[in-house]
Please model this.
Amino acid sequence: MLKDSHTRELGEAQCHADVESPNAIGASAHATLHCLTGCVIGEAAGLFIGVSLGIGVFWTIVLAFGLAYVSGFTLALFPLIRKAGLDLKGAMRVVWLGELVSITVMEIAMNGTDYWIGGVQASSVLAPIFWIGLGVAIVVGFLAAWPVNHWLLKKELKSCHIHVAIGNAQ
Model:
């Protein structure tokens, strides 16, 4: 459980102070990597399903986008619920805006890249272009969302919720 609101505020203040420090790039990179993990799980699942079932490029992208939101939010919410003791509504209040913006930027970059390379248009998940498209899309998604996450952290529109929740739960 969170010890109290004062402890949580101190943790948040430390988190945002870190964004102003020389290690700010590292802090925002870590936040982006966490976001990327959730996005890639959903993105890859959506692409696998869509390409395997041959549902078409548009619906494959819609599926990948939707599953990326589900998995991205789940990875952000789970530690807050499990380790910080927040209920779903409380955890969602902590993460919704930052995750929404970060995932949206990442998914636009990833799906656009995958479409441009041709991975989402592959005839099979066994086709090399499928894997090339996914691999390049992951890198582009990270690079697109990194400055956005840095800005969100700096403006306190995204919190270091995972670190604060886990740190305060101990």
Notes: The first helix runs from residue 5 to 20. Residues 5-169 form one domain. The mean pLDDT is 83.
